Amino acid sequence: TEQQLRELVAQHANVISVVMKGTFAFVNTSDKDAAVLAREALMGFPLNGGPLRINFAKESGRLGTSFDQTYGPSGGGPNHGRFR
Hints:
The chain is an alpha+beta fold and 84 residues long. It has helices spanning 2-10, 32-42, and strands at 15-21, 24-29, 46-47, 50-51, 54-56, 79-83. It is globular.
């Protein structure tokens, strides 16, 4: 559920919002570095019968996101992660 995901990610990063879309969830965090650490800690974590998969939003997303290059040196922009 949204609450389960919020509580799980909040152990590693300040969660601003969670939006559920079918089997996907979009999690916004306030800090890029914490989002990277959350992904490292939670990738593959068992949730609802399957392993958690985490990807960061791609460049020029529909909501104006500019992230990933897998959080390379320039990175920047809102911190959107797609959790599945």
